């Protein structure tokens, strides 16, 4: 029988988990800033292709370790294909959006992902959502509208890229719940293979020569993104999700900081106000869900009344 970890050991695990989550979020923000730098000079297809090749520097040994045949032994194959489709649309439209918009603006759209997940889970996962969380979903969506700058320009093509990309991101998260028995290596592996194929197609006729620095930067995109995925996956095994999930909003802080540092972008009042509303609404949805799952029913006001 395995000895139970002491209270001190448990606290240490939690601390390591928090550090890994924050580091993973920083790497994601760094990956996004690097992507914005690259797509200003190269096509989205070329960046996707070389980024995907770079990811296999990390994923290659992991796939070899679990056995390449495991990539084909997956549950619910149609949903696997659908998830890969949404994940590819997500990353492709993200890079298309940051080519024209400040990093903080695009990240604000993506911070609404948990809010979309709450609404989509009601439809696709049959999860009951009471009026309190529906109100938070509505408030969060209002935050997205505010961040879009209510004007005739709010439906510009780059903004639509950000909105559709964030919805695809949310659908990817929902499908992750369906496919939770599939290994992380398999999920991320197929995601990168699909991005590689799409990148190869989109780069036809749009390929440009690269300097060694630019080529290294594109390959590093894949390495950084893969490391971020692995760090966050490990953090969730060391610390409670209820503690780690709100830390995801640190991505917005990093996006503002890196956007200012590398591109001189300063978010306007619309983005800051909309971002704050989205974060508050998202935290309320997560807090409410956590209460209903962890507290005795009699200790929580009914969610549907």
Automatic annotation (TrEMBL):
Keyword Cell cycle: no
Ranges where the EamA domain occurs: 16-148, 160-285
Gene Ontology CC, one term: membrane
UniProt cross-references to Pfam families, sorted A to Z: EamA
Segments passing through the bilayer: 12-30, 42-64, 84-101, 107-125, 134-151, 157-175, 187-207, 213-232, 244-263, 269-286
Keywords assigned by UniProt, alphabetized: Membrane, Transmembrane, Transmembrane helix
SUPFAM superfamilies, per the entry: Multidrug resistance efflux transporter EmrE
PANTHER family per the UniProt record, alphabetical: ACYL-MALONYL CONDENSING ENZYME-RELATED (PTHR22911), BLR4310 PROTEIN (PTHR22911:SF135)
Protein name, as recorded: EamA domain-containing protein
Taxonomic placement: Bacteria, Pseudomonadati, Pseudomonadota, Alphaproteobacteria, Hyphomicrobiales
